[in-house]
Design brief:
The protein is of the alpha+beta class and about 450 residues long. It contains seven helices and 21 strands.
């Protein structure tokens, strides 16, 4: 081979080596570009948890808008009803801290495989995910947007088998080349508005008197004379008793109140909720709370489709309440005397004085303790009243089992007492089969019991 050809061949070889090295480096850079296993998905420089002022979650079926107003979180699309702060805190903390367990190279054409397509209102939802948007300050555009997809049930490779069986596919808005697997189920992220509402607006503790008034003015007045005692219905005759299967939820009402949703807008109008002609319930408690509750009965939903005949489902019930309180005054309860406080007949004046001083000291100590306990209770009552007042006036949709008993008539609440069965007196002898006077066994004439000599009634002997 000529020297000139060798030189040309060498130049070509060097060029090929250079091109191979360049393409190899470019491929490696591509495979490692973007977020990798172990990376935080939301960079703290992009968004700090304390900067989040609004959170929107939506899918093809529902959406919820949460916002922070004057330091408190509210549900914007429920007339700023108080939101479940503990749940919001969990979600924000999770989103800010969550890391990549494994990353996949994937584009828009493959999103539906992971349920990561954009959720569009009105679509059938197939292949669509749940959009999560985080806002800060008063920005109209989201600072961070995520799409949460379907569950990932396998083990990951890039992260040392993290996320096995309890992960999720997600993608980050603005990143159209990667899909991530995270080692968390993200179970709190849901678009249902009702799941974000503060769930414990009020509870009625230690009910004393319960007055139920129907829209036709029929009244039922239940009373208790002592805390924890049985309630008695006014006007109950001696032959009647309460039908406890229908009255138990009335005489101990809403000890743990629960609801399905908060009703707003046109749906909350009295003609739609039955609150134009409600059942009114007044409850006073042994702790001085007074509740006024209105329960409405709305119409059921009319079902009419190609798959189902037209039917009217069970009624929907609604409730609103108000509350005030007059707390009981402090009453000193007598202290139980102890054995060493007894004064013996032969006690000296000095011993009597010692015991007298001891009793005074203990009485004072007990009084201070009772006063302290009362003040602590009173503070708890005041806090409870303040919280419950903040929810009053809201219209709640409630479960039928929580409400339907209040609509019962007297014949459903009262029943006749069951008569106690009394057994007729029975001759013990007929039951025990005792021997007759002459020693013979009953129903067996002439049969004698060994060892018993029959008596002879003949007076001539």
């Amino acid at each position: 081979m000529k020297p000139k050809q060798l030189i040309i061949l060498g130049v070509v070889l060097v060029a090929l080596i250079f091109l191979y090295s360049f393409s190899g480096n470019d491929e490696n850079t591509g495979s490692k570009s973007g977020l990798q296993a172990g990376d935080v998905i939301i960079n703290s420089e992009t968004l700090n948890v304390n900067d989040v002022t609004s959170l929107k979650i939506s899918d093809t079926d529902d959406s919820v808008h949460l916002s922070r107003q004057e330091g408190s979180w509210v549900v914007s699309n429920r007339d700023n009803y108080k939101a479940d702060f503990s749940k919001i805190s969990r979600v924000l903390k999770k989103l800010i801290e969550i890391r990549v367990a494994e990353q996949l190279k994937a584009g828009a054409s493959t999103y539906s495989r992971f349920d990561l397509s954009d959720p569009k209102e009105g679509s059938d939802g197939e292949g669509a995910g749940t959009r999560v948007q985080l806002f800060k300050s008063n920005n109209d555009s989201a600072s961070v947007e995520l799409i949460v997809g379907k569950r990932f049930g396998g083990a990951t490779v890039d992260s040392g088998q993290q996320g096995g069986g309890n992960g999720k596919y997600i993608r980050l808005g603005g990143n159209e080349s990667q899909v991530f697997i995270v080692a968390d189920s993200l179970y709190d992220i849901e678009s249902s508005t009702s799941s974000w509402l503060e769930k414990n607006p009020f509870s009625i503790d230690k009910p004393k008197d319960i007055l139920v008034v129907h829209s036709d003015e029929e009244k039922f007045n239940f009373t208790r004379t002592e805390e924890g005692g049985d309630a008695v219905l006014e006007g109950l005759s001696e032959e009647e008793e309460l039908n406890t299967s229908n009255t138990s939820s009335i005489v101990s009402p809403f000890a743990s109140f629960s609801f399905k949703d908060v009703v707003v807008g046109d749906k909350a109008k009295p003609e739609n909720t039955g609150l134009a002609n409600p059942v009114n319930v007044e409850v006073s408690t042994f702790e001085g709370f007074n509740y006024k509750i209105a329960i409405g009965k709305g119409e059921g939903a009319n079902v009419d489709s190609d798959d189902q005949e037209a039917t009217l489902t069970s009624a929907t019930y609604y409730l609103k309440y108000s509350v005030d309180a007059t707390f009981p005054e402090f009453k000193l309860k007598p202290r139980e005397a102890q054995d060493d406080e007894a004064i013996k007949d032969d006690a000296s004046d000095e011993d009597k004085k010692k015991i007298s001083d001891l009793v005074k000291s203990r009485d004072l100590e007990d009084k201070e303790k009772q006063q302290k306990d009362y003040e602590e209770k009173k503070k708890t009552w005041k806090d409870k009243l303040e919280k419950e007042k903040s929810f009053s006036g809201t219209i709640y949709e409630i479960d039928s089992w929580n409400a339907e008993k209040f609509f019962n008539k007297r014949e459903d609440l009262v029943k006749k007492k069951e008569k106690e069965e009394t057994e007729d007196e029975v001759d013990p002898g007929s039951v025990l089969n005792l021997p007759n006077e002459d020693g013979s066994l009953p129903a067996i004439p002439g049969t004698l019991i060994p060892g018993i000599t029959p008596q002879n009634d003949d007076s001539g002997e």
